[in-house]
Amino acid sequence: MTAELPPITQMGSPIIVPTREGYDRWAEFYDVDDNPLVKLEEPVVRRLHGDPRGLDVLDVGCGTGRWAHQLADAGASVTAFDFSLGMLRKAREKSTRHPIRFLVHDVAHDLPFADNSFDRVNCCLVIDHVADLERLFREMGRVCRSSGRIIASTLHPAMMLKGTQARFRDPTTGQETRPRSEPHHISDYVMAIIRSGLGLARMEEHVADEALTARSPRAVKYLGWPMLLVFELQP
Fold first, then answer.
1. Which whole-number Å values give the CA distances from 78 to 167, 178, 229, 233, in the listed order?
2. How is the chain split among helix, strand and coil, in percent rounded to 5?
3. Of 34, 149, 155, 193, which residue is 20 to 30 A from 142 by alpha carbon distance?
């Protein structure tokens, strides 16, 4: 006899939990969740990284390791960290052809690396959870070599105006849970970049289009709406 899961009940109001707790909960099904933002982001960030073979790369807030593993498999030497033990456990469980150094660290604190340690710094879908943007940008610039680049992506601030932020629905209970996010505007990101001393080489905004809705049915309600904001920065 097989046990049956209880029926999913659509709960009322979403609950907001501390960011670390939220991602610890999300870790169990993050990689199989239909996340339109991830599907929109990946080809954009992959294009900006280009060929990372032979590069020393730092993956900031690596989550379940989706970028750490892609970059390592493409030939980069990758160091990755996150403060969610649940996410890190999933990242470490994934097989890879190349070793990745995974660490526990919180981006709210100075990065535990020497100056000029990396050719590339990757920080994807993280900064919308960071209160002190200037500090993080400055630290990423410090550990990035002068010839390197920093690639950062985030949920577009316009999504907050639509009542959307990083969130998941528990597949068993149906309860919507939102890891705490910061209501930054585009100007907050740009001014933090400028004040940190980084050069803004590129800023891109990407909307949900029909190609995305074909890959992610959840994106239909965002059709034509800005979903993704991406930066390419130089020390």
1. 28, 29, 24, 19
2. 35, 25, 35
3. 155
Q: Which amino acid is at 178?
A: R
Dump pLDDT digits (tens) for 1-52. Answer: 333 333 334 456 899 999 999 999 999 999 988 899 999 999 999 999 999 9
| Helix, strand, or coil (residue 157) | helix
Output the six-digit token pair for 53: 């073979």
Q: How far is CA 111 from CA 24, 126, 208, 232, in A?
A: 21, 15, 34, 20
Beta-strand relationship, 226-234 and 15-17: unpaired
Is the separation of the CB atoms in 229 and 203 below 8 Å?
yes
**Are the C-beta atoms of 178 and 17 separated by less than 8 Å?**
yes
User: Bridge partners of 120?
Assistant: 57, 149
Q: What is the DSSP letter of 65?
A: T
